[in-house]
């Protein structure tokens, strides 16, 4: 039996969310096949690109391999390709990997930076709307500050050490916040005074973060940046960029070699050639059900759109924003109505029926955030930063595995360097675990001695023989050689607590409990077997559970 294809183009939040929902609902329908097409073999978390650009996290933090995401969705096929054209009459889509027929199609290819035709931006500036662009910025800032530190000419030095961001929306404000944090690291690395690295935020309007309805939050973000040495310039309209820097509408200039443009978003340029009616920013216009509208004004009942690709204004909530929630709400609507088309759900739903916004949280670096959540709950600072991570985890939980969420928390809280997390590094495990090795070995020997009745009078408080003694050997051996240290440390704590409860209290039990807790920070990686065993097990079981990651996918060849 020939399967009918439901094709999703674009592996952003909208495309992945729709694919996940369709895969779940169509699992028992063997006559339908879901094909996810993207030019990359991974999903990029666009909302975290500023962290990569400013070296807060590694690039892998914002990438999720598509095989990992869909390893257990056997009705999803992955194709790494780009769409060249769409034949709406014959219901086919032509890609760089060939032509495919579709029963239903969702277009969610995302957006790209919009420089509004400003001369010189693409030649002499940088944009932040893809992984490749974030890596260019990452390399540029590191290299240009190094050059500036070595430059003796004052004017040239100032130009090299000036970093300018155009646009004070979410992306611009969050990127500037990351630069505030990164400046401290760069200044220390290249022996500079922090004030020598100038950060300039350029905004054509008269206020920052205009999408925040509570202007007090925007004012707090503004003040935080001012307090941290950012030069905020309102009503500064950029009319050009050249090799020397930024040119303003009044003829004045700002010398810099690092201009990052974040002032606008538009649809991917390829969309213009696919035969749809487009609105603001070249986005595809859709109806209330997320059906794409053809360029002849006809609603296409077989093609849907979602994410930054769409132009739509909801009567209750206004224009769909270029945010994760905007993308997911549109994807939810599109996937629901495809299922309705297939007779699997009773009612078709409009965007207004399903839309739900939980609010915004804008991080100005790793230590400060302003948040406006549901029920007009507006707050800022440390708890707002935790809320921002909570929001991210909520979004990720809808598409990611528990393993990936765990690694998100490791990357954002426990693997961060230079104090760049909400706790200012106090919970980071970047400290050298080598120094916990002697304590780990001591605890291992202690439990082995307890098991073989060699603790002297302390033996009255612990066990010799039976199951308890066997567990003492297990804990002791694991701690001694540094194998599965976290588990061995946890077992050590349980044994000490049990000894306390059943055999009476001794001060050594408190030492064992707190000492075991201390070595659970990964001390098995310091002269321990975990240094080799944990990565190997992660590789083996990760491959078995999630499959093999590839730089390109073409499941259609299977």
From TrEMBL:
Q: Give the transmembrane region(s).
A: 433-452, 461-484, 490-515
| Short name of any one Pfam family annotated for the protein | Pyr_redox_2
EC number(s) recorded for this UniProt protein? 1.6.5.9
Cited PANTHER family? EXTERNAL NADH-UBIQUINONE OXIDOREDUCTASE 1, MITOCHONDRIAL-RELATED, NADH DEHYDROGENASE
What family does this chain come from, according to its entry? Belongs to the NADH dehydrogenase family.
Q: Which residues form the FAD/NAD(P)-binding domain?
A: 5-327
Keyword Flavoprotein annotated: yes
Q: What class of enzyme is it?
A: oxidoreductase
Q: Transmembrane helix among the record's keywords?
A: yes
* Superkingdom as given in the UniProt entry: Bacteria
* Gene Ontology molecular function terms on file: oxidoreductase activity
Q: Which gene encodes it?
A: norW
The molecule here is called NADH:ubiquinone reductase (non-electrogenic)
Which terms are listed as keywords in the entry? FAD, Flavoprotein, Membrane, NAD, Oxidoreductase, Transmembrane, Transmembrane helix
Q: Which reaction does it catalyse?
A: a quinone + NADH + H(+) = a quinol + NAD(+)
